[in-house]
Design a protein that fits this description.
Order of helices and strands: HHEHEEHEEHEEEEEEEE
Shape: globular
Organism: Clostridium omnivorum
Helix content: 10-25%
Protein name: Vancomycin resistance protein
Strand content: 25-35%
Pfam family, one: VanW
Mean pLDDT: 90
Strand order of the largest sheet: 1-10-9-2
InterPro entries: Glycopeptide_resist_protein, Vancomycin_resist_VanW
Distance between the termini: 24 Å
């Protein structure tokens, strides 16, 4: 048996732990010399770096589909805060600072969130789908991910998965943030929108790049350790010259993932 954290033993302790961490992050936001991206422009920059989309409603084990319907409404609210945001040289994009605290007052509904090893309802649940998409866009660009968190467990079997396991990002306001810094001389723009079936997004830039990125997975496997199942893999990317026959300029490890699996993998049955 794993010993429970103090914050797991009583709601009061959990509340205090959360707000202690939030206050620390607020101090970082307002007293450090970080230049956050905050300007939005609905005139699109001229060149597209990458576009991607993700399905809004998917089968996730035996979870309540109403939580996913609520998630769609939550995404609509958050998108309005991010769409069109400009990331100039030296600026940092912060998901949490840009979107703000999701509350009932702002119209957020209970959606699925993953916490303490469980999938459960939470106000604003499902916003990680935006963070997942943004991380995928960013790792196909020269922008630098300076803060990214991923879940310590894998709650559901793959069902129509398109991207490699562990290539997304999780959000927990405000200390579990997704932050990106523009250490280049280019200006970038994030555009987000929704269709009937998908969340869609693109990353645009003010000058065309002469290189691109190919992101791929390596060393994926499931493990059984004693009575528990685990999943691991690595995310890599190649930097490729666009006008030199696809010559690989650089290969970089993006992330290593190792997570507890909450189901029995079919590969190990």
């Amino acid at each position: 048996m794993h010993k429970k954290l103090l914050s797991q033993r009583h709601p009061v302790f959990y509340f205090l732990a959360v707000w202690y961490r939030r206050i620390i992050r607020y101090k970082q936001w307002y007293f450090n010399s970080i230049k956050f991206a905050k300007v939005r422009d609905f005139n699109k920059l001229p060149y597209r770096v990458i576009k991607h989309q993700s399905v809004l409603i998917r089968k996730l084990g035996d979870s309540d589909v109403q939580l996913q319907l609520n998630k769609v409404e939550n995404l609509k609210i958050a998108i309005k805060k991010i769409d069109g945001i400009i990331i100039r040289p030296g600026e940092v994009f912060s998901f949490c600072k840009t979107v703000g605290l999701p509350t009932k007052y702002k119209g957020y509904l209970p959606g699925m969130e993953l916490c303490f090893g469980e999938a459960r309802p939470g106000i604003g649940g499902g916003l990680c789908q935006i963070a997942n998409l943004l991380n995928w866009l960013v790792i196909h660009s020269p922008l630098t991910v300076t803060e990214r968190h991923h879940h310590s467990f894998d709650p559901f079997p793959d069902n129509g998965r398109v991207l490699p396991f562990g290539s997304g990002a999780t959000i927990f306001y405000n200390y579990g943030d997704f932050q990106v810094k523009n250490n280049t001389s280019y200006t970038f723009q994030i555009n987000l929108w929704m269709t009937q079936k998908c969340l869609e997004g693109e990353l645009r830039i003010n000058e065309e790049l002469d290189f691109g990125y190919h992101v791929f997975e390596k060393n994926h496997r499931f493990l059984k350790i004693e009575d528990n199942y685990y999943r691991q893999n690595e995310i890599w990317r190649n930097k490729i010259a666009k006008f030199e026959g696809g010559r690989i300029l650089d290969t970089e490890l993006v992330a290593k993932n190792f997570a507890l699996v909450k189901y029995v993998p079919k590969e190990l049955k």
